[in-house]
Amino acid sequence: MKQFVHLHVHSNFSLLDGLPSPSMLARAARAKGMEALALTDHGTMGGIFKFWQACRREGVKPLLGSELYFVDDVDDHRVRKTAHLTVIARNAKGWRNLCKLSTASFVSGKFYLPRIDWKMLERWSEGLIVLSGCIQGRVQSSVLAGDVAAAREYYDRMTELTGGQFFIEYMPLAFSEQLVLNELLLPFIEEVGAQAVVTNDAHYLNREDRELYPLIMLAQTQGRIHSEVSNAWLKTRRELCETLNVVYPDVPRAFLTEAMDRTVEIAQSVTNFEIDTSNKYPEYIA
Q: Which of the chain's termini has less CB crowding within 10 Å, N or C?
């Protein structure tokens, strides 16, 4: 069977929202025969170095990223709600820009959460692959709310800003709101001619771990939210196809096949750059 590359993955650095450590993810990817794997933790790159080291040991191509929190303007503190945006470094320049975005999200953009905005992306978008995020992404939430015009405006601006490196995430998860979204998302993707990728928003390693995930979500939300997500493990392509056949039998197979194949193309487009691990010391002026 063809390969599939997970481009949206969480480790335990997504605090109380991911189960495996970065090294566990790398080992699992090798054991499942995966050639490449991304790490995109919520609002942080804290696990990236461990992940990069572990992937190199295991012979898995590391795709270094983060699921960043996006707002139109970080200086506007009237708006607390953020949108999710999955960002992956495509080359050494993209890696440096991703580091700058992550740092700026804390230094300049922090308001309840570390955030980025249009100004930051316009300054540091070169070399980045940008995905639309989960159900809390701007495209997805706008489509779900029936505001297709807002979704189109955001899509067009992000596509232009990234030089065509913007992809719509189609998540074959089985909870009720995602089922509604995916039915609405297909016509939008066709209308705007978007490049879609299948992502599974993996939060744990294996099917057997799905009983644990709702527990950490209850801890995160202090008992307010019981997660409906039950199939967000690090699936092989075979397992993913099985899920799609059961949960989404009416979605055109050609669309799904192309969106799964595109994950491999994206992974292959990422260059094998090195991370500078040399010691850095402050310069003192006498």
A: C
Please provide the DSSP assignment of 145-205 as one string. TT-HHHHHHHHHHHHHHTTT-EEEEE----SHHHHHHHHHHHHHHHHHT--EEE---B-BS
Query: pLDDT by residue (tens digit) across 102-117?
Result: 999 999 999 999 999 9
Question: What DSSP element (H or E) covers 68?
Answer: strand 61-70
In residues, how long is the chain?
Answer: 286
Fold designation for 22-269: TIM Barrel (3.20.20)
Q: Which amino acid is at 249?
A: P
pLDDT at 223 > cutoff 60: no
Name the token pair of 49: 């170095």
Q: What are phi and psi of 78, to 5 degrees?
A: -80, -20
Closest CA to 39 of 10, 69, 68, 13: 10
